[in-house]
Amino acid sequence: MALDFELEHQLFSEIWILSDSRSVVQYLDNWRDVSDRRGMDIFNKLKTLCSSSVLHLQWIPSHVNLKYNNIADGLAKEGTTMPQAYVEPLTYLELYSRRKDFVYISWRHPPAH
């Protein structure tokens, strides 16, 4: 939604995307390997934004009392209670791709225990 808002209004010449999810940052960093519809939609929006803005992608630690991270977490929790828009079912290849990515990331980054 934030990308759509920025595409519509073009308010900023510099955009920072901060995430406390390493998997999201890795997903965006490995854009060449993305083949699912939702991922491609995000990348097309980012590509369009790159023509008019400078984009920055940064991981931030979670649960360390960063003011805006706590605000974003609260908004995300609030968003999970809102009615969801209809999303088309995933194809077999999209499901396979997501599972393959999950296994690949798990294999490259084993749990700390």
From TrEMBL:
GO MF annotations in UniProt: nucleic acid binding; RNA-DNA hybrid ribonuclease activity
Stretches assigned to the RNase H type-1 domain: 1-81
InterPro entries, per the entry: RNaseH-like_sf, RNaseH_domain, RNaseH_sf
Protein name: RNase H type-1 domain-containing protein
Species in which this protein is naturally found: Araneus ventricosus (Orbweaver spider)
